[in-house]
Amino acid sequence: MTEPAEHPLLAAVRPLVDALGAEFIAPARAGVDDVRLAWEGEDVIAVRLPGLSESLDRILAGLERHHGRPLSELDRKAKQDVVRTLEMRGAFSVRHGVETVASALGVSRFTIYNYVNHANEQRAKARVVEETPPQGD
C-alpha cells in the first residue's frame, strides 16, 4: 500500500521548517505560540518553533557542518566571519548567547565582543564608502 501524497503546502515549507529546527504538529494540538498554516481557508498543519537557545545550537551546528570541522579549530579570520554571521542572525540577543558562542569558538567573551566591534567598524567603513559620491573632474 502506498502512503498518501504529502499536501503541497507541507512540501513547500518543509525545508524552512527543517532549517529552523521547528516541527510539524496537527492543528488540533497547536497552542497559542504555534504557527497555523492554512490552505484555501482550511488549517493544514501547525508549526512549533524551537526555543531561541535551541535555535542557536542548531545554527552553530550548521556552521560547523559548513566549515567541515569544529568551530574552535577555525583560524581567527574564519571565527570573525562566524561571529559576523551570528550577529546578523541575532545570536547575541539570546540569553547567554555570547557565552555559548565563545565556548563553541574556544575563545573568551571579551574576544567575541572584540569581533562584534570589528564587524561593526567594517560595516560603518563600508557605508561611508558607499555614501561618498565620486569626485568629478
Description:
With 137 residues, this protein is mainly alpha-helical. It folds into 2 domains: 8-48, no CATH class; 52-131. Helices cover 54% and strands 11% of the residues. The chain has helices at residues 8-20, 52-67, 76-88, 97-105, 109-131; strands spanning 23-25, 35-39, 42-48. It has a 3-stranded antiparallel β-sheet. Strand 2 and strand 3 (42-48) form a beta hairpin. Helix 2 packs parallel to helix 4 and helix 3 crosses helix 5. The chain is extended, with a radius of gyration of 21 Å. The model has no long low-confidence stretch (mean pLDDT 88).
Please outline what is shown here:
This protein has 137 residues and is mainly α. The protein has helices spanning 8-20, 52-67, 76-88, 97-105, 109-131; strands spanning 23-25, 35-39, 42-48. Helix 3 (76-88) crosses helix 5 and helix 4 (97-105) packs across helix 5 (109-131).
Main sheet record: 3 strands, antiparallel
Cα shape: extended
Secondary-structure-derived class = mainly alpha
Any idea how many domains?
Answer: 2
Radius of gyration: 21 Å
Helical residue percent band: 40-55%
Head-to-tail CA distance between termini: 77 Å
**Oligomeric state as shown:** single chain
Order of helices and strands: HEEEHHHH
Give the averaged pLDDT, no decimals.
88
In percent terms, what proportion of residues is strand? 5-15%
Count of separate DSSP helical elements: 5
Strands, total number: 3
